[in-house]
Each structure stands twice: as structure tokens, then as C-alpha cells.
Amino acid sequence: MIRYSLPIFGNNEIQHMPILSLDNVVKRYHNHTAVDHVTFNVEKGSIFGLLGPNGAGKTSLIRIITTITGADEGRILLDGEPLSSFSPAQIGYLPEERGLYKKMKVGEQLLYLAQLKGMTKKDARDSLFAWLEKFDIKDWWGKKVDELSKGMQQKIQFISTVCHNPKLLILDEPFSGLDPINTNLIKDEIYELNKNGTSIIFSTHRMEQVEQICEDIVLMNKGKVILEGRVDALQERFKENKFRIGFKGNLDRELTSDSFEVLSDSEDDLIISVKEGHDSNELLRELMDRGHDIISYNEILPTLNEIFIKQVDGQSDE
Amino acid sequence: MNKIWLIITREFSTRVKSKAFLLGTFLAPLAMVAFFALIGFVMSRGSDEQRNIAVYDKNDLLKGAIESTDNINLDISSKSFADLVKDYEEKKIDGIIEIPESINENENRFQITYHSDDQLAIDESLIVGNRIEDRIRDYKVKSLGLDLEKIDKLSTYVSLAPKTIIEKDKKISSMTNIVGSVMGGVIGYAMFMIIIFYGGQVMRSVMEEKVNRIIEVLISSVKPYQLMMGKIIGVGSVGLLQISIWVLLLALLAPLSSMFIGAETTSSLTDVAGVSPEDMQAAMSEGQEKMVQVMQELRNLNWAVLIPMSIIYFLGGYFAYASLFAALGSAVGEDINEAQTLMLPIMMPLMLAVYIAFSAVQAPNTSLVVWSSIIPLLSSVVMPVRLPASPPVWEVILSVVLLIAFCFFFVWLAGRIYRVGILMYGKKASFRELAKWVFFKG
Question: Given A123, A157, B165, B241, which residue has the most CB atoms within 10 angstroms?
Fold first, then answer.
């Protein structure tokens, strides 16, 4: 096996060696290109969002990373090494479409799946007991899967994804089909795994979930990466100098100014866009000068959803 | 390799531990034996009603003698026909047989009238007809002035006793061919059943994993090819285990059942043919003699070749067909109807092979049989039928080589289809589509 002491690409900083590096990865199916020269890095210990609408190529890309299929072109390094038959043991994958053997008992099934990931029977048993204990579901060991409710099955599925202590966890729409309680439970587990050093790729088309959870994201559309970076940096980059201003008392509804424009108003707040060449201090000063009683003042950052729609619209205009 | 072993173990142990396996393995043969015993019982019993039938013989042609049977009381009556009709109306008798007024010695066919509103059962009328035939024969012998003893000397029975010329050591008897080819036929048919049954199980198992979507988790841990092979080997091992148990049970139960069936057939023989007790005794000892001969011939078969060769043909046929079934299962997923449509072309060579195998039982050396025993997909069913008759060695070698080569080819082909099929949802599978998948890149 070839060992790379340094990442071949990226920032060439050893401390920041990415857990996963994709370099110009291409996957073609007979009549379309599902993954089109995709390049990005997932930093070690991060929670990384892989975003895009349905059909953007997320699942195709994940299937390449999980060695289910192979890439036609490009290079992929997992923790500095090319994908190989050793990779599956280092990856935990929760597919969007969940599934377990219905007639098999929970314990047997979890042991089987863990051993397929390369664990010994003893290690698998120890790890599984610890997880079942944690979720307080040890007595499910001898139950058949089809005796469990859907939410319970999801927990079993989650345990099967993480019990072999993967370096990289890939979660494809992990919250779909979960009730709010289980969503929070799984979310907490994700945070805890991440705190203990597991890198996580979180794939979804539900952008609002990503804003809360992820640090870095990649936004895909039609097989291509159209945006990448830190969530706050992207929001900063795409903000439109909009502010929400809360006030008390009367306000001059027909407010006009050279430096700003009122976009909308309601009972007790205003949404104002600051014109180019002016800044928000000017806006505040102007409002205060007019004697308004301002109680709150927020910058409105664009949601990822808005950024995405804007980007996709921009792209289709080309 | 380790992962294939895990998959084999799971496929094997979940099946063997299931109730269906226990039922199928131990109850199915018992049910089968019980079923045949029941059929034998029903066939031998016929009707349990006691019938009283009057024989109206106006001119006393039968000389007042006719034998009754267990269920039918035949009584030659001296009453007039009108009185007999009255008896019938009073339900004293169930019917009247009317013997003609005269018998023409030159006539070979007689139609004897049976007067009744209820028909006799087929076996009843055969028996009664037999009894009357015997009487008419006696009548003819007498009226033609023949010697009954001399006539008995006319009946002759010839059987050919084979004797080898060059191969002096080879033990053969008149039963050799029959026993050999029937045994081969049994093995061939068993092959067919096993391949269909376990091949079908492989297909269902593949469909299950695709439908319940566990497949994506599995193939992120193992290669599709490993999964498919593990499945085929695991299910095949269950098959071998089950067959071994059956063979064992058969060996234990066979002496019991053969006694039972032997007794049943001889007793029904006496009923139908009206054989006298002495004849029956003779038939019994002849039957026993035949039985001994059959057992002898079974022992003489070259089992040392037959068993390993049967296993080779079973494995070759099973792997080829099971992998095709796996490919089909991967392509269809949920829709069992679609699966059945696609199964037809796979079933066809198998059905064809069974028909050819049946014809091979009678004639193991026709060119159709010889060629089918060499062509892969047919050979695993047809060749076992020919094996007891010791076919030329080159034919067997060619057949085995082709069997193994095509077995690998089909496994490879199925693997190509399988790896694409298991991840393909919502696409209607057709053979054109499957052919395309074979050439997809990894």
C-alpha cells in the first residue's frame, strides 16, 4: 500500500491534513455526468455539509466515497490514502434509504453488520453493548427487527453506522423520518461523536438544518460544486446589507433617504436595505437624528436556501 | 475472503435455524410418504360397498359356477328374469347380469348386459368381466372339444438374460439397464427440483435485500460480487445439508416403505386380475425375487463414480442457474410478476433438460441425449441419467469441462448485472437493459 506522508493537494499544512480529499472526481452514467469534476477537502474533525437539491449528484458522490462505485476520473484520498478495500472499515455510512433485515434479531444483525465492517466478534459485541446501554435499549438485543417501531429501527440503524468507530461518518439525510425527540437525540450523538474526533459529512437538501450544524459546506447542483466555504463566510459574502430595525412609538412611514431604502414595514419593525457606498452606521445615525425610538437593530444574513436559489438562478442565466 | 465467509454463515444459519427449514426437512418427506401411502390405500381399497348381483343364466351355459369377489357377491340364480326384477325392486339385489342364451364359439367379443339403475365402478366391472371371461373360456374349451391341460401348456413367457462377452467381471442381469437408467432419472429429476428450489431462494434473498434497502449498507462494506457469491454458496450449503438429511431419511425409511408398498400392490393385483391364491403366491415370490434383483443391481451401480459426478453436476448446474437467478432478483426488486416474466427464459433450458432426461431413461444413447448431456445448462440434468450406463469417457470429460467453464462465465455475467441491478430503482428491467448493464463500468 502506498502511504502519503503529505497530502498531495490542499494547503500543504500537515496539521490540516484533510480527512477526505477529492480532486477532480468525475462519474458518468451512460447518458449524463452525475459528478462533474468535483474538488473539495473535508477537514479532520469538522462537520461538513454536502448540500444540493435532489439529483445534484450527492448520492452518486457518496457512493464513490463509500467505495460502492468507482470514479471514472479524479483522485480521492481518505486520511491521506487512496480508497482501498481497507476504506470501508474507516467509514460509517447511513444511507438515505434505511433498511435492516426484518426477520433477524437486533443483536445478530448488529453483530453481522459490524463484522462486515471488519470488527472481530468480541470487539463488535463490546462496542454494541456500550451503544445499546447508552440508548437504554439493551433489552432489544433478542428482539426481531419487525417487532420494533420505525423510530426504534432508526436507532438500531444509527448504531450499526457508528459502532465500528469510523474516522469519517457520512450521514445522508439523517433526520428524515425521525420525530423531534429522536432528531434531537441523534443530533446530540452527532455532536458528541464530533467532539471525540469523528469527522462528519452531512448530506441533505434541507439547508436550514445545515446552518445550525455545519461549519463548512459544499453546494452542488447538476453534478458540479457551485459554492464552498464556511457557512458564516458565505453568509457574509452574499449578504445584501439588509437590516431589521425594531422601534417604539410612531415612525415616519414615508421614510426616504439617499443612503437607504425601506423594503417592508410592519407594526413595530422595518426592513431596510442600505444603498451602495453607505454603511449601516449612517442609517442608524439618520434614524436617531429623526428622533425615532430604536430598540433593536439586526443585520439580516441570507439563509443558505436564499444563497442557493440565487446561485442556481444565476447559473441558469448563463 | 473473511467477509464472504461471514455472508455464507449468515445465509446458512438464518435459514437452517428457521422453522421453515425444520418443517421442510423433516416433515416434507414424512408428508410425501404419507401421501403415497394414502394414494396406495385409496387405489387398493376401491369401493367398500358390498354388492349382491344375480346372474341370470337361462340356458345354464356357465354350469352354475362363478366366483364371487370380496365386495361383489355373484349368485347364479334359477329364478325367472321377472322374479329377479321384482327382487331388484324390493332391493334384495343390486343388479342383474344377463348371460346370453347361446355362445358362439367363433365369437371373441361378447357384450353382457348388466341391468341396474346404478353403474358399477370401473374396477368392479373389470373384475366381474374377468370372472365371466373365465367361464366362457371353459365353455368354449368344452364345446370345441379341447384339452384344458394342453391349452395351459401353450402359454409361454420369454425374458432375455444378458451375459457379457469381453468384460467377464461385469455383473449384469435383465434389470441392469432399467435400474441404472431409472436411478439416473431420479438423480436428474432431483437436480431439476433442487436447482429450481434453491435458485429461487437465491433470487428471493437478493430481492429482499434490495426491497428493504439494506443493500446499500451492505455494499458499502463488501463488494457486490462477494455478497452475491456468499449468498449463492450459503443457500447452496443449506441445499446440500437438506439433501443429505433426505438421503439419510430415505435410506432409513426405504426398507419400511418398500415392504408396505409391496404388500399393497400384490393385494390390489389379486383383486383386479382375479388371480388365484396359488398364482398370487407365485407373483409374490416373483415380486420378491425382482426386489432382490433390483437391490442387487442398485448395489452393483458404480457409486464411487456416480456420487462424486452427481455432486460435480449439481454444483455446476446450481452455480450457473443460481447466479442467473441472483442477477434476475437484482434487476427486478419488488415486482414478483416482472420476476416471473424474466424467469421464463431461464426456466426453459431447465424444462427442456428434464424432458430430454426422461427420454434418456428409455434410450440413453440417442444423439439428442448425447449432445444435451454435453451442452452446459442442459448437462447437469441430462448427464446424471446417462452416467449409470457408462457413457464414453471423452463425452464426460468434454461435458465437465464445458460445465465448469460456463459456470464461471455465468457467475461472471451475473456478477456484472447484479452490481448494477441492486442499486437501480424504478427502472423496468428488460433483457436489453440487463445486457447494457453487463458493459457498465464499475
Answer: A157
